[in-house]
Amino acid sequence: MASVEIHDLCIRFGHNEVIKDLSLDVADGEFLVLLGPSGCGKSTLLHSIAGLIDVAAGRIDIGGTDMTWADPTDRNIGMVFQSYALYPTMTVERNMSFGLRINGTPKAEIERRVNRAAEMLQLQPLLHRKPSQLSGGQRQRVAIGRALVREAGVFLFDEPLSNLDAKLRAELRRELKLLHKNLGSTMVYVTHDQVEAMTLATRIVVMRNGKIQQIGAPAEVYEKPENLFVAGFLGSPGMNILSGRLSVSLNGLVFSSKGIALNIESCPLMGRPGDEQEVLLGIRPENLVIHAAGELQATVSVIEPMGNHHVVWIDFNGNLLSSIVTGALTFHVDEAVRFTIDVAKVSLFDKTSEQRL
Amino acid sequence: MTAVVNPLPITRRPRRLGPARIGVYAFLLCASLFFLMPLYIMLVTSFKTMDEIRLGNIFVFPVSVTIEPWVTAWTSACTGVSCDGIRGGFWNSLMIVIPSTILPIFLGALNGYALSFWRPRGSQMLFGILMMGAFIPVQVMMFPLVRILATLGLFSSLPGIVLVHIIFSMPVMTLLFRNYYLSIPQELFKAARIDGGGFFRIFVQLMLPMSTPIIIVAAIMQVTGVWNDYILGLVFAGRDNLPMTVQLNNVINTTTGTRLYNVNMAATILTSMVPLIIYFVSGRWFVRGIAAGAVKG
Lengths: 357, 297
Prior knowledge:
- The structure holds two protein chains of two kinds.
- Chain A is of the alpha+beta class.
- Chain A has a six-stranded mixed β-sheet, with helices on both faces.
- Chain B is flat, with a radius of gyration of 26 Å.
- The mean pLDDT of chain B is 89.
- The chains are: A alpha+beta, B mainly alpha.
- The interface between A and B is medium-sized, with 25 and 16 residues.
């Protein structure tokens, strides 16, 4: 078990600065998820922790030791790749034991570790198969097993579930979470899938263009996004955004836009905003509640049935807003409905800086 | 069964043998006859006696089949002064081909592996220079190489000719293996690095076992290439190691009295036997090799 500390990390590809002055601490036993769109530098960051990419400046400590220039194999890490990266000419057992055989671990110890990992991941019946004889889910299990037998302090996952179909992905996601619970090891996990991030992480790091946008527990990042990018990246359907301006008066704080004047006094703000400030109001679909006594009116545009809930898209003065409705629907497409906004749970962003107010 | 109401029209599989198809087959037949004709004449002639050949009917099947010319070609045809047949050349060629296949493949694989996975500084440039080497005609390098080998004391020796073959095969072998290794995901190499594999361990334990298809392709190219070589063998091998191609030339050019066409034909077929067998046995692999070299630069 080990912690990871990254200080002022810079990574360049030629003249292209992919990561600039990035600092990040991963606590011992934490499940940290690096989340961001493709090209945001999250995989680069992970590969630099693994020692597979040279850093231009900065320092990486693993388990309290400076590992910035250490060989990948000496870093006390295990890694799982998106493409599984299994050795095609070796059986499952030899795949898992390859690293141990290289560093001369005694035979009995190799056997013990391989059997333990195989048991955890239900791989025993497959030990003597070649990777080409396995399904995608089984292959990724083997890849996880290969990382496990190293009994490393830190496990690195590079989009391990992206090549799997939806059902397997959910299954393996649950297994990974269970694995983390049982092992208690530090895990750093890269994904662009917000569902994986929300379900697995103890903390999420949202990244864009090589910079960290926000670090926090999943609920915190979801409910209190620090800027518009984070707000838009998490949640499905995404956060509804209304553009308008603020007016500060004796009655309190009022957000006004076309056809709406909303008292947002109960909205928790970090500072006191200025009068007439141009702002963006962000409302999560579940905080936009459709009910008969609502004070606002809109027309139902599209209804998406999701099985256990419906996503209802309503046309509110030309803005298409989404709402999540659980239970039976009391309206049809093209009908008028009334709704309220749960003001205590909205987010407010400055229009120009796109930062949370 | 109920009565068939308004049955759907049955669509027929289109006729296979249209006029266009017949034309194509006719052309292919003509082309293959054209290319097979010389081989046919050689085979037929090699089984005829000289008396029969003098009648001049070169397309006719031999009346009295004789294997005498084959025996002569193998054991007692004159290659210049000595008259031991071309069997000496066969063994010489074999001695040249075996190391000239194994070593270039190993070195080419090592080059390709280093270029596509380790990518040391300047590797792109190194590869570019190596590729340029493939476009420089052999004749240009001939004399400098003679001088260099003479200085090293390797001129006119088996190690000398093998070294020359290694040098001239390096660009193609490197290209072949580099392109093959580029198609292997980098992540595989990274996983092996994390598992603690070093340069040679990853090469020997991971990459070489994965390279069987391309090794077969490289072996075919190298064996046929080296076996068919004439000029390098003539210049660099030395009198004791002359390959079969050079011996064949000597057999045909050494005339004492009448030209023994049947012996010449037999000797030629014997010389081309190794590449021919390889082409026939490995046609599929050979095509794959050509494609592997062509796709991706």
